Amino acid sequence: MSVVFVAASKLPTPFAEFTMHGFLDEATGKEHVVLSLGDVGDGQPVLGRVHSECLTGDALFSLRCDCGFQLEAALRAIADEGRGVLLYLRQEGRGIGLLNKIRAYELQDGGADTVEANERLGFPADMREYGICLPMLAHLGIRELKLMTNNPRKVKALEGFGIPVTERKPLKTGLNPHNRKYLATKAGKLGHMLGSLHQDEVEQP
Ligand SMILES: Nc1nc2c(ncn2[C@@H]2O[C@H](COP(=O)(O)OP(=O)(O)OP(=O)(O)O)[C@@H](O)[C@H]2O)c(=O)[nH]1
Ligand SMILES: [Zn+2]
């Protein structure tokens, strides 16, 4: 596997003081980050979030999606549990990159939905690759995840790479008038389990 550990440091945040682990994917040059809290290498399932980069939602307060809200909710949940892990994967725009995502948003401003926009640009709806999680989790001694996600394809993909997901924890947050259509498309075309937004129940995968 081409993902190698580079360095670790403390990362104090408003939620907790995490340990930040930096990794380099030597095949793509992408730099990934994992935040961990507590003893995650004890062999017990770990509360986890596998979050793909969304510059607009995570850093620029965009209301077009739910990413920033999910990121914050996940970090808060890990802090509340006192133990957990967040993998921040540099797969912007479901893998098409930031500038192509802006192109896709332009098409969405003209009426296309998030899937149609990707397809019009010649991309599949979702180009992400989750195999890169494996060496990062192995480095931290994590064998099983209690995964915070609404995306059943993410659960399937991780399990396909040999990472058991013992529990799926919904992460329904951030619904607003600007992302209502986007979230409806995710549920309708991408299979996201968003049945009742703003509900925080625990479901089996
Ligand atoms: N191509 C494209 N990517 C988008 C759009 N809106 C958000 N994204 C990207 O979608 C990704 C969202 O990733 P995640 O937060 O892991 O979420 P998810 O796979 O939708 O599922 P959850 O785990 O339920 O949040 C990020 O990479 C965003 O940049 C869009 O309209 N078009
Ligand atoms: Zn987003």
Automatic annotation (TrEMBL):
Binds 1 zinc ion per subunit. One of its GO terms (molecular function) is GTP cyclohydrolase II activity. Residues 8-170 form the GTP cyclohydrolase II domain. Zn(2+) binds at C54, C65, C67. The keyword Hydrolase applies. Pfam families: GTP_cyclohydro2. Keywords: GTP-binding, Hydrolase, Metal-binding, Nucleotide-binding, Riboflavin biosynthesis, Zinc. Its EC number is 3.5.4.25. The active site is at D126 (proton acceptor), R128 (nucleophile). Pathway: Cofactor biosynthesis; riboflavin biosynthesis; 5-amino-6-(D-ribitylamino)uracil from GTP: step 1/4. GTP binds at R49, V50, H51, S52, E53, Q70, E92, G93, R94, T114, T149, K154. InterPro entries: GTP_cyclohydro_II (IPR032677), RibA (IPR000926), RibA-like_sf (IPR036144). Its cofactor is Zn(2+). CDD domains: GTP_cyclohydro2. Belongs to the GTP cyclohydrolase II family. This is GTP cyclohydrolase-2. It comes from Serpens gallinarum.
